[in-house]
Amino acid sequence: MARIKRSTSSSIKNRKTKGKKTLQTAGKLRRRKTLTKSLREIKKMQKSTDLLIPKASFFRSVKAIAHVIRPDLRFQSAAVLALQEVTETFLVGVLGLANLAAIHSRRVTVMDKDLRLVTGIRHLHKPYHPIVDQNTYINSLFKLAKTPSLPIQNSCEDCKQVGGLFNTVSEMSKYTLLDLPVDSFNWNEHEKKIVKEYLNTMNITMGELYQSCLQDVTDKKFNKKEMPKYHWINKHSQICTKCWPNVFLELLYAWRSKIPNNHLPKEVTNRIDCWYGRNCRTQKHNLLHAQKLNHICEQTRW
User: Are residues 256 and 220 in the same domain?
Assistant: First the structure.
């Protein structure tokens, strides 16, 4: 009879380990290939100055947003290109910071919480606009109705800064408001929408709203609860142009809290008060939370 050589257990183990090693090496090679490919793409994009988003799809999204505001709006090709360049620089900056946040938390993948953290930090440090500086924002928000008077050489009562343009609150009536500030009502978009609808129904312009807020200062129609930071302010208080938008936000909140409930729709007045009130952080990014709960109230839970 022909002899059959039996394979020992050690030889079977060796075969298995060889198979595992080949699979591991193949996986590593694949991973290396994908990593080198992605790195090559990143380097290529960093060197080039071309736009990353397709022009046609970007134009369609711009057109859809503009149609909601005004159906008869038209855009020049140069204007759309300028918008695309600005949006791409903003997105690249935000995603770069989100990548740093992911690396800091010892992760490779950029997650939603990284983006939320980065946008929150950007709002804290640049609360008015992500691109333009503070003075440009103030000039775009508050437009001079008359020629301003000479600057009063004194210190600001809020930031105690000496030097610069300081005016009393009564002199701020020479300005007029163009639109609601971006960070009004703690970035609550739903609350801004309610205020704008109320202004439209009552035929009140932004300028009249601004003047009524200043009249509240002269008549002292607010208390410490409504204006916790600036309850000391009066018509003779000297405020610099950097601190004035913050003062106006407090005045706007005090004005909104005094709107009677019978002038607002039932879906607005029937809402339950949020535990964190005006200091709620969820109202900034969660529109459903802002619609469901009322945030024109004080904080009851810490």
Answer: yes
Distance of alpha carbon 121 from the chain centroid: 10
What is the four-CA torsion angle of 44, 48, 53, 56, rounded to 10 degrees? -120
Please indicate, yes or no, whether the overall pTM of this predicted structure exceeds 0.85. no
Q: What band does 191 get if pLDDT is binned at 50, 70 and 90? A: very high
Same domain, 167 and 279: yes
d(CA 105, CA 107): 6
239, 138 contact by CB (below 8 A): no
The confidence score (pLDDT) of residue 118 equals 86
Mean pLDDT of 182-211: 90
Nearest to 253 by CA among 285, 279, 289: 279
Residues in contact with 245: Cβ distance below 8 Å, sequence separation at least 6, in sequence order = 128, 137, 138, 141, 142, 181
| Cβ-contact 116, 161 below 8 angstroms | no
In order of 17, 76, 222, 247, the CA distances from 210 in angstroms are 78, 34, 15, 12
Q: Are residues 214 and 269 in the same domain?
A: yes
- 133-186 pLDDT, tens per residue? 555 555 555 554 444 444 445 678 888 776 556 778 878 887 888 888 888 888
Q: Does residue 205 sit in the same domain as residue 121?
A: no
Question: At 54, phi and psi to the nearest 5?
Answer: -60, 135
Tell me the CA end-to-end span of the chain in Å, nearest whole number: 89
Distance (Å, rounded) from C-alpha 130 to C-alpha 125? 9
Structural domain for 117, as ranges: 57-125
Residue range 30-40: average pLDDT? 70
Q: What is the CATH number of the domain that holds 106?
A: 1.10.20.10
My answer on whether 206 and 76 are in the same domain is no
**What's the number of domains the chain is made of?**
2
195 and 230 together in one domain: yes
